Amino acid sequence: MSSPRRRSPQKTVTSGSSTPKDVAVDVPARALPEYAVVTHAEEETKDQKLSPLGLTATPSEKAVGFLTELPSSGTSPFDPELGPKVLSPQRAKSSVLQTTGVEIAFHQLSLTATYVSKNMKRKTRRILKNISGITPCGSCTALMGPSGCGKTSLLHTLAGKNAKSKISGHILVDGKAREEGFSAKIGYVEQDDQLMGVMSVRENIHFSAELRLPVSISKNEKRCRVEDTIELLGLWKCANSKIGTEMIRGVSGGERKRCSIAMELVVDPAVIFLDEPTSGLDAFTAHKVVEILSDLASHGKTVILSIHQPRYTVFKLFDVLMLLAEGEMVYQGPAAKGAEYFAQIGFQCEPFNNPCDFFMDVVCDQVRRLDRQISYGGSVHVQEMGFLARSFKNSAEGKAIAGECEARVLDSGVAVDASRRMDKHVRRYATGFLHQFRTISRRVFLAVMRNPATSIFQVLSFLASAVLLGAFFYGRLDGGPTAMQAHIGAMFMVAYMIIFSAITSLELFIQERALFVHEKTSGFYRTSAYFLAKVVCEILPTRMVPTLFYAVVTAYMAGLRTDFYHLSLYWLTLTVTSITSTSLCLLVSCATSVYSAAFMGCGAFYIVFMLASGFVLQADQIPVYLAPFKYLSFYRYCLQNLLALDLHNRVFDCPTPEELMADPTLVSICLPTGDLYLQSQGINPDNIWKNIGILAAMTPAYLFIAYLFLRSLKKTT
Ligand SMILES: Nc1ncnc2c1ncn2[C@@H]1O[C@H](COP(=O)(O)OP(=O)(O)OP(=O)(O)O)[C@@H](O)[C@H]1O
Q1: Which residues form the ABC transporter domain (predicted)?
Q2: Mutation test of ligand 1: which of 117, 153, 154, 309 has the most ligand atoms closer than 8 Å to its C-beta?
Q3: How confident is the model over 260-306, as pLDDT tens digits?
Q4: Which domains does the chain have, with CATH numbers?
Q5: Tens digits of residue pLDDT in 536-547
Q6: Quick one: residue 627, left, alpha or beta (phi over 0 = left, psi -120 to 50 = alpha)?
Q7: Which of 214, 236, 324, 663 has a Cα-to-Cα distance from 243 of 20 to 30 A?
Q8: Strand (E) or helix (H) holding 274
């Protein structure tokens, strides 16, 4: 695509196919939408319109001023389906459209991230540079700009989701500092849909309602809200369909996105933030999604979204456009007036060019030239650097916005930088710990049951390995001359399989990590409630039940002791070992989001614990500095128990020297009694409960460290 041509300032917009390319004519833009300035007197009439969602608009409190020029209603010239629909009056009273939006103003807002560079040096980077802006109440504001210009960072900052970066400047909500509990008033839709794949659309929305609506709202009312949201977003056809996972076919991309919006809308927020809600959607679906958002704005909600180069029919739906480049504001105002503004500063939009493509060409061209000059080591020409940002700052529009923002800050009396301190308190939970724990537990339990990887495959894989192990040792664990070696080998393998099978749990948490971070930062629940529910409803049952099958099958097939005492202690030892090794996996998966790193980390721990167990190398052969691992080795405690249970009071028929002479294949480790072997390894058969106690005590220690890691998980910006 060619670079946009910069010309001397003109106040007109070129238009029409018959107009020669470079001639400016005085006609209103051919494809720019008609805009109507809304006054309070007209508002009543405007609010009677039927929106594309089919709702009768509720009175909205549109701000007055240049930013309130809202698109007039009307059928899209491009899409006949977008015309008004007639609906029953009941739907006009949707329970999720009760809260009207708020105005968000930000003044001199800067964001500086600290990060560790490739050469391990601590560096800082200014992502947003002293920008000011206003998103009026009941408007649909689009943040546009090239990749990396700071759209997501601005969304995060306004939503109070920036946990690590340094923020300076002011953020005002309806002219006041963001108050405690601001997060309860907003909805934030991430770029990647954060939904529970094994749950249905309705269940996902219900989960959000259960946790984010106060307990004072009755269950019935919550259900009504869920149904209203489903109705409003046109999700009734797929309401009972699962979202979908790698193994379960689910709903379409557009339905997923609408479900994500529904999860936020169900709490009736005043503001909805959306990070690139159309990414990955086809043009028609993207249009439908933005149409819904625009409609929510016309019903009073404040909608702020980031978007990449939308097509014109989508662009027409935006009320306010904020164009960013390199962390600076290069245009802000009515979306329809963008082309006019750029013409004023010398960039002319060609006839039939999509204004969005044009804006992006202008901005990207500046960024490209900057990049080129920087990468060739040349100095950046002062005129070019920040030309667009400077032009906007000096323009009448830019000055008007800066003036408005400053006036709001002065009126509010909020001290400088107060917003950063306040960010720590914007999150407040709508429900208590017990309610959160119950609701999350229900979801975790359902997810475990519905996910074949945690339910049927888990049991089948334990059964399969038990049958295989049993088959190898079938008939070998008698009291014959070679049996002792077989007994030791069998116990060694049983412990090995139980410990290494825990690695399957790594993936489960890593997959859910982004969902957890989203829900945590959106104020769904406390980390502790989530963590406890995960341990009680996922880790415990998915380890206890399969190990029961494993214990029974291996004991009977291999010929271990199967009386109640021995079998139950055998199962208990395997269960606590499995839970402990799974806790270690959880710890590692909380510490890193990279699956291969977590796999290697866990594998390394298991190997070290095996080597330090005293069965591979004798205890006194382990280097002193590695000796502490002996005490942490759950492999050691598990194997000691398994051997004690199997070999204590067992007698072996060892070959005599004569028999060995006659049949050299009988050469093997053989002691006349199992107790002699236990003694040689320093295993006390009376320590079975002690070992189980030590294994059980390790679990909370690992879980506590995992919980601390989980608590520290935050957004990276
Ligand atoms: N924690 C951080 N440390 C260092 N740099 C960061 C951090 N967070 C964001 N950035 C950088 O800040 C810039 C803006 O990031 P941001 O995600 O806001 O851009 P964006 O406009 O949303 O991009 P895209 O459209 O590609 O999603 C990027 O160059 C990004 O690499």
Answers
A1: 111-351
A2: 153
A3: 999 999 999 999 999 999 988 888 889 989 999 998 998 889 999 99
A4: 104-415 (3.40.50.300), 433-712 (no CATH)
A5: 998 898 889 999
A6: alpha
A7: 214
A8: strand 271-275
